[in-house]
Amino acid sequence: MTDTDDPIALAQSLIRCPSVTPDDAGALGVLGGALKRIGFECHRLRFADADTPDVENLYARLGTDGRNFCFAGHTDVVPTGDSTDWSRDPFSGDVIDGALHGRGAADMKSAVAAFAAATAQLVARHGAPQTWSTPGSISFLITGDEEGPAINGTRKVLEWLSERGEQLDACLVGEPTNPEALGDMIKIGRRGSTTGDVTVRGIQGHTAYPHLANNPTHHLVRMLNTLTAKPLDQGSEHFQATTLQLTTIDVGNPANNVIPGKASATFNIRFNDHHTSGSLDAWVRQTFDAAIGNGDVSYALSFRVTGESFLSPPGPLSDAISAAIQETTGRIPELSTTGGTSDARFIKDFCPVVEFGLVGQTMHKVDEHVATDDIVMLTKIYLKVLETYFDLNR
């Protein structure tokens, strides 16, 4: 049995579950047991999809009335790679020289443990939510699918909550948001992400007789050049400039005397609030059509949208987190929208959502680790946020 109010011990127990997405490996059982000891009602939710693996999720709630403050995150982790590259077992959960080691230490089992420990400390200090002068609720939405396809995780739990008529009023996601030190950065939004796949079809032929062929690589290079020739924008008030990066160009032609019949490329666009995935789809097609002109060539283009850009404007939630950070660490955090996507992209349709967790320097790396002092401080920050949100400081 792990002491629920001890974030280090609980984080160790979670790390020792090798929950490489989509396998749960007991992690949600460890967390659910800890939450039940605080008084949470826990629901284990398993969702399946025809083309993706089954995923275990957990929704737990303490209290039934008032505003519902949700802690959201994940217990699945990315693969370790070659375990012999690690200086110790990737799932050891060892504490060495003031640092907790193991896959998920930074991203984001330690933050999940801090969620639980902060809630346990809140209840010990102020009693259960139903005893407060103004009752409230605290919930946990924890998925095993954040590092995977993100199909059978957070968004399906949110659909389940909607069907039950259950509302979230504010959400804090515990992703590792800090670049260098705890308290550096809060995420109040994220850029959108869309990936385009284009294939240009020409006419195969002999390189010595190009007039009898139509080289698709020439057209593709011209098309891609028009995409990268100039920036899409200069950024906006809360977002950095949109970026477009080519990730691969493929012809699959082993012969140097053959003009290929087709050529393909993939590119990714990380976009701000000047755009939507739909507007970028239209822009790319217009750009490609202009680049081809009247050329006797055709292309196929498709997009895979990971998420739209979104912003939770600065307000009471980010103010409460900023104040707690400054009181605990002395730092004034930057309100940022940088980085990749997270499950906040699903939650933003249900309530204001802000992300704040640990330092992310070692996430997804060999020998992933975080300072134990940071885990303790993060727990204090989460506790102060809860006390501020529920007006328990009086």
CATH top level of the largest domain is Alpha Beta
Distance between the terminal alpha carbons, to the nearest Å? 34 Å
CATH topology of the largest domain: Aminopeptidase
In which order are the strands of the major sheet placed?
1-2-6-3-7-18
Quaternary organization: single chain
Number of domains: 2
Percent in helix: 25-40%
For the largest beta-sheet, the strand count, sense and barrel status come to:
6 strands, mixed
Residues in β-strands, percent: 25-35%
Q: Can you name the CATH architecture of the largest domain?
A: 3-Layer(aba) Sandwich
Our Rg estimate from Cα atoms comes to 24 Å
The parts where pLDDT drops under 50 for at least 5 residues are none
**Helical/strand content category:** alpha+beta
CATH superfamily of the largest domain: Zn peptidases
Average pLDDT over all residues: 96
Label the overall shape.
Answer: elongated
Short synopsis of the structure:
By secondary structure, the chain is an alpha+beta fold. Helices cover 30% and strands 26% of the residues. The protein has two domains: 7-190 and 309-389, 3-Layer(aba) Sandwich (Aminopeptidase); 192-307, Alpha-Beta Plaits, CATH 3.30.70.360.
